[in-house]
Amino acid sequence: xxxxxxxxxxxxxxxxxxxxxxxxxxxxxMESGWGETNSSFIFSMENGKTLENCMISRVTSPxxxxxxxxxxxxxxxxxxWFKGKLKQSSYEKKIYDSEEFVMVDIEIYRVVKKxxxxxxxxIMEIDNVNN
Length: 131
Hints:
Layout: E1 2-8, E2 11-18, E3 33-35, E4 41-46, E5 55-58, E6 66-68, E7 103-113, E8 121-130
Antiparallel strand pairs: 1-2, 1-7, 2-4, 3-6, 4-5, 7-8
């Protein structure tokens, strides 16, 4: 799970995307190319709002769901982290009013099962990169 915090019109928003748990057929690390998945989604939520108020968009073009690039991995053109761009193309709907944003912080999380015998999960922060 990737999460990004951004500020727009004096409000803080969180935008995020979910990568599948199974490995994608992505190109080698230093090459750019598409990764295919049916299980990816992106979402946005204003800080302080509930999950019921978040905007979720599921992938509609699995063959173009993930763009793997050395300096700008992203969720197709829909969520381009390091370029600060949002343009609806391979996911069902826009997740934010504007097509541009300024990144304040990026955090990477992993959701793991606590116990093999039940469905409880734990969210672990993997990395926190301040912009």
